[in-house]
Specification:
- Strands 1-2 form a two-stranded antiparallel ribbon.
- With about 220 residues, the protein is mostly helical.
- The longest helix is centred in the N-terminal third of the chain and has 14 residues.
Length: about 220
Amino acid sequence: MKIAYFLLLVAVFSSCKKPYNETFSEVERLAEHKSFLEAVELLSELIEDYPNDEKLLLKRGIYQSHIGDCFGANLDYSEVLKLNQLNDLARYNRAACYYELEDYNSAYRDLERLLLIRGKGGVQLTSEHYIITDNQLSNLTTEEIVFLHGVVCVELEMVGQAIADFKFCIKNQYNLSESHYWYGFLLVGLNQLDEACVQLKMAQDLGDLDAKELLDNYCN
């Protein structure tokens, strides 16, 4: 009798779970309409029933990033990485949030780990497009990682590494306006004004709005 009662309880509680596919489709619909707060709330309800679902945690982290809650987002990204250390998108997004939170050392560690996982380390990696895991939400290029790595290195005053990163991005035609801007910005700091002005003019021509101020100050 006790066994039958226990099985009945299991059946009752199982039936209380939110229907996964139906609820997830609603989450996706909300996100398409940029209703990220509502999407986060619905994901939180779903995660109560599926606490170890890598995809749900990653989605909630991404949407929390969209609403400016980088601290909450990083809690989710960290949970994803506990489940799967090789989820590159979670690690990259966590690094991006660390950058927003001005925790540059933590961002640097995550990005260094990503570049190491990619197989060769540093900026010597080939420009390939990677699919990370079966249930990750988007592809992530090495150029994206290297660009953020460069921006973090600027904050950490690792000038040589930052220059190498932006030169890699320029070579591989990634985010050209900002890559030229940052390269020029760093060259200004090194007093290499001729090349700095070339890079800043290219950035401006490509639509970077911050390049003009440096051009006016250093390139007249």
